[in-house]
Q: What sequence folds into this?
DNA sequence: TGGTCATATTATGTATAACATAATAGTGAT
DNA sequence: ATCACTATTATGTTATACATAATATGACCA
């Protein structure tokens, strides 16, 4: 099962339009020429001659690559290959109003799994400064005003800091991407009402574990901290 | 911090091209008309009149929405709103040959976090049949031929089954999406050579925990099982 | 009446040509 | 040598015409 074989499987049928084929031809061309990030790709007119199709088709194919974040085009300079920020791409189709409810629920679960599972990366990369910053955030937390908008903002800033500590840019982008979804999910009655609103492990408790505990302990603490969210699912 | 406010933040500058603006106008239009999945959107010519731009621009904007999986277009019928399979969208820009190494490493970490963190969903939804299937897979595993292609395939089929048990379609799609990446990462020397090749917790051990243990135990067992992968990162 | 086939219609897909615009290169004057 | 102006280049936008596929229409026949 090689990479290429897997990719081929994704396009089994023959119902490709001309633009479809041209798109893959261009990607293939770029790969063959071993073009790296920053290199300029052939001009639109050159591509029309190379591939024998109209500029319209070339432009539509290039437009796709642009949307995918594979290239960027500038006037006169032409198009250059870019390093696609895949989550930025994703964010454009992540419109909560359009995604179906099942997917929204799935994404919510995905987030919970990530926050529980990223313990090792946090422990591997956390610094004393990070600990202090987390303590700072905790100290400014509002007390017991559960429904408050202010409370949610603090909730977000604490967890965002954890993602930042993981030092995984894709993970950070992913979280940023999910934020508007949760906002939507919370307001849309898609999930059950929380059974009770007390948090078993507080943010302060999590910081303690980060300071003195282990990844194992942190996973369990985080799982516990998120208990309310899990209860809303099961 | 509402959804809309967050979305607006993503487009701060004024460097939008005409197609950019038309794209958002169309999405806005669809939202205002409260169009749901399956509804047909205005024809290209109608949009040209509504928005006062050429059909080409309309088509390029619609092309973007197509790439994002928001609409599908059929001849004569026009374009209809679809429920975007966001990970299918993502897969198109997930070309391992184009993604930079940092992103590849990030995705690898993301996978590890997910597999450790999804314990609760597996436990919540696993059935006796699933257990039997896992046992079946384990029984067919090759012995100690670590480098073997055959071994990797069994590794994949075991872990794929776990994703399936999670009953989270987005999660499953995500894994499917990541498979070619790992293939690439493994072959590209991007990660360190594994320090030693023994697995601390075997697949059989994981199944035992699934049968008799708890989410907590499973998280630790899975973390242990993946030890080699973590060692390659740290 | 009811069904089947050819034809018209409709909306997307593709091709071509022309002009607009922005960025760069090049030229010339001081 | 520097600055300003112009020419050039490649993408951005518009307009038009034709191709193609899917559907609707309607005539025709049994």
A:
């Amino acid at each position: 099962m090689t990479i290429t074989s897997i990719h081929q499987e994704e396009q089994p049928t023959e119902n490709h339009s001309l633009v479809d084929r041209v798109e893959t031809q261009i990607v293939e061309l770029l790969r063959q020429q071993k073009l790296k990030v920053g290199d300029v790709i052939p001009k639109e007119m050159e591509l029309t001659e190379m591939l024998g199709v109209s500029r319209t088709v070339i432009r539509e194919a290039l437009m796709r690559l642009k949307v995918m974040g594979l290239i960027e085009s500038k006037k006169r300079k032409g198009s250059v290959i870019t390093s696609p920020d895949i989550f930025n791409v994703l964010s454009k189709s992540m419109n909560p109003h359009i995604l179906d409810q099942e997917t929204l629920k799935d994404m919510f679960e995905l987030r919970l799994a990530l926050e529980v599972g990223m313990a090792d990366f946090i422990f591997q990369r956390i610094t004393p400064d990070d600990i202090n910053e987390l303590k700072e955030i905790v100290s400014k937390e509002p007390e017991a005003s559960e429904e408050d908008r202010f409370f949610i903002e603090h909730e977000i800033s604490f967890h965002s800091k954890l993602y930042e500590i993981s030092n995984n840019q894709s993970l950070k982008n992913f979280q940023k991407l999910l934020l508007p979804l949760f906002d939507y999910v919370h307001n849309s009655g898609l999930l059950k009402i929380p059974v009770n609103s007390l948090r078993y492990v507080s943010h302060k408790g999590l910081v303690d574990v980060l300071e003195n505990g282990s990844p194992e302990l942190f996973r369990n603490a985080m799982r516990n901290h998120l208990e309310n969210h899990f209860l809303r699912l099961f």
Chain B has two domains: 3-84, 89-233. Residues 43-45, 59, 73-79 of chain B lie near DNA strand C (CB under 10 Å from a C1').
